[in-house]
Amino acid sequence: LLFGTCSLLSQQQLVDYERIKAVGPDRAAAEWLLRCGAKVRFQGFDRWHHDYNGLPTGPLGRYKIQAIDATESCIMYRGFDHLDGLTHVEEIKFNKCIYIEDTCLEKLSSIENLQESLYMLEVVSCGNVTDKGVIALHRLRNLEYLFLSDLPAIKDKQMTTDRLKTALPRLDIALDLD
What domain of life (predicted)? Predict the structure, then answer.
């Protein structure tokens, strides 16, 4: 079911810049993430939103995404421009995301707002992520916690983690890569 859903959604990965202008970056990103099976939590709220039709409404800019849980979602690189305008995202979880690959982590790391706000990231069971994608995370200068697990394409975990630790001395890296 997931694969079929993702195939149908691949067209919905395309970024609608007019929609972003109309509803704001957080609302547009939340719509994309939820369409792809992810969940979001807004700043000031404890509850995770997973139902597209249950997204809160209000004035433009009222709801800011603070956390993204993309577990088993079908987000892919072509939709990552949705993240460009997000200024309050502190946590992201990529868990069992079959379309997450190095280019996704490189894009994530190149987004200036996320370089400032993101402090917690998990990448678990994303089989297309290699050392190259993980090393790209060094641009997330405020990243404090990184959990990496079940990433079979990572070949040199020592070199990869050493490079990250050199670039981000405050970073706490938890590994479960064996």
Answer: Eukaryota
